[in-house]
């Protein structure tokens, strides 16, 4: 439907609309001028004002001219959009009364890409349905019922919103006024297993990505694991034996030796090597004892130093307290003001 493909624009009907079917076009234009009657006897377009063409400074409409000739002013984003007539190749869609409340819809199912379309003309074919709804986006499938309804599945979720825009429109096939060639579209969200399955797959994928992202973030802040201890071999044994003799590398080497013994690396062939490494470890005990003695000596010296410093501090404290007591005797006390006496008393208590 190349003719109607651009007509879903909410702002205006394009000026250069090709005339696909002159009789359908004439019917549509006549309807604009003389509010057409529907099946129930109600006007299809009760709010149409024939003088609208004059307001825009354009001469009165010729029903056969290609293009409507009415270009309404652009709609501010906060105002409700005025729905326009939509022309397709084999049918015409007339907008609902703008004063009526918008058609009710059910709650949108998660991941909805399928719509229910009711109120189709009895003579409406799958081709006509495709012509009307492919303007909303790529149609994946149409499941038509023998009754006047069908289900349409789109490629993307946003296309469903475009299809819902057509709800309430009256559809007329060609220029016919036969009851079987007219209908009022009712478009609503439909629950489809395929949509739900795709949506659940998408949610699971997003959850997997989120877990992966969290894991990466956690690993970034986790401290690195210590390198694994190598398995025993004659070469590694000689390396560890050398490290056991070195005071700076002793801690690392003794941990390796312990791991080897716990792993069960000791056997008849390796026993002598392990014995010599244990002997090397034993020789460090003398060094550790000497280090302990040296630290104890340092601590004793520090204690003596602390005692000397503390006794010096206490002597000075006693001297300061003696000054307070001396100042509190009658001979000196009478010469101080009340505030000075109060301060001296407080200082004396704090020092004691």
TrEMBL record:
Top-level taxon of the source organism: Eukaryota
Gene Ontology CC terms: external side of plasma membrane; extracellular region
Gene Ontology biological-process annotations: ultradian rhythm
PROSITE patterns recorded: RRM (PS50102)
Coiled coil: 278-305
Subcellular location: Cell membrane; Secreted, Extracellular space
Ranges of residues in domain RRM: 113-192
Transmembrane segments: none
GO molecular function, one term: oxidoreductase activity
InterPro entries with a match to the protein in the record: ENOX, ENOX_RRM, Nucleotide-bd_a/b_plait_sf, RBD_domain_sf, RRM_dom
Keyword field: Biological rhythms, Cell membrane, Coiled coil, Copper, Electron transport, Membrane, NAD, Oxidoreductase, RNA-binding, Secreted, Transport
Main location as per UniProt: membrane
Family: Belongs to the ENOX family.
Protein name: ENOX2 protein
Originating organism: Climacteris rufus (rufous treecreeper)
Organism taxonomic ancestry: Eukaryota, Metazoa, Chordata, Craniata, Vertebrata
